Task: structure prediction
Amino acid sequence: MLDLKFVRENVAIVEEALRKRRSSLTLDGFLALDKARRERLVEVEGMRAERNAASEEIGRLRREKKDASELMERMKALSNRLKEAEAELPTIERKMEEFLLAIPNMPDPTVPDGAGEEDNPVVRTWGTPRVFSFPVKDHVDLGAALDILDFDRAVKITGGRFCLSKGAGALLERALINFMLDVHTREHGYLEVLPPFMANSASFFGTGQLPKYEEDLFRVAGTDYFLVPTAEVPVTNIVRDEILAAETLPLKMTAYTPCFRAEAGSYGKDTRGMIRQHQFNKVEMVKICRPEESAQELEKLTDDAEEILRRLDLPYRVVTLCTGDIGFSSAKTYDIEVWIPSQGRYREISSCSTFTDFQARRAKIRFREGASGKTRLAHTLNGSGLAVGRTVVAILENYQREDGTVDVPEALRPYMGGLARITKR
RNA sequence: GGAGGGAUGGCCGAGCGGCUGAAGGCGGCGGUCUUGAAAACCGCUGGGCGGCGACGCCCCGCAGGUUCGAAUCCUGCUCCCUCCGCCA
Result:
């Protein structure tokens, strides 16, 4: 959510940002609504002030055992008029709220202008895609032949866009989770947390998934709970409605969770394999920091995610999402894309964003400035470190051998009981 | 699931319907004292909205209601705690 005052005073700038985001939203009517609200407010508050003063006077009179009945009579009438005047406010305020909640974050000035994915500039590339001397298989064929990925059984158990991992496949998934968490906690200074895998609607409002993106979520029937689509939701909301001490910042947390996404509107996209699933594992990194630090923290966060790929020796590149491709709550996002041999292209495996104070304002995440004692909104950031399912895809495909077996990356072997190669049982 | 008890500021904790945005304590900040620190003493110390400002308004779990006036009374909801039952 943007600051109401900022929107009021910078309508042209906000509309320019919306245009750059290729958003169809306009601020038509916003200023009129805001004006109406303030006029009403002045009127109502004036009446309240009068009522408060009179009530005090009545209290004084009664303590002095004097008659206050005439004043009380007058106040009864005022009170009724006040109720009428107040009645319109909630409607206006609800409309204002809807307006504000629908406005996406302002893109950072360094975010390049562009319409979509194809306009995202490449920031850097690491590693060289391996040249295979044999026809490459994709992870579905590799996984089926090795009997470590079973999509058919998953369909029977649940349905499409689910996966059943078995044997070395399940072990690989578990090893990756442990490996990623260990690197982030032991070497990058993050605190490991294991949050609930469901969160209430207040939390989803806090990080911006609600009210706009409910159709992407799985709701637990008959409750106010939704399955988490990313650990960002439960972990960022750890500090919702809190005023943090400045010296505790930056807060750096990492969490493993499964992620549940309805993937509405992605029919026909990535239907094969485990690139796009309703449920996938992910290790997430979340930071809460001072506004002055957030730009630098985004760079570090992105590097923390890249480090995992470097350790796994998987070729990747980093792109900056352009204004047309950036997420609703994000001010700036780097996507890390890993090389997928079967597709001959890079695919997103991590998304690292700074939300500036956009989430913090919604979730009321503040900190107390040591010097002034003033409370300020914190900045929030998060990034995948990494999406585990897609890492499995990348490893199977990049480390495949001609005979259909798959080498285990050096860094993972200690996590897999020393296993150096995945072969059919 | 059944029966009780509770929800007040950064924390603990008072609060007959008017003098309570809220006693008192702790913590924090500033000062006196001290070579320095501690102790002692003094003062300050919640969040938000509107206004250039003086100032005004809102907030005692949430939402309604009663009343001239609600932290205090009433209704509904949410959450927490204790005991019993069930259960990984």
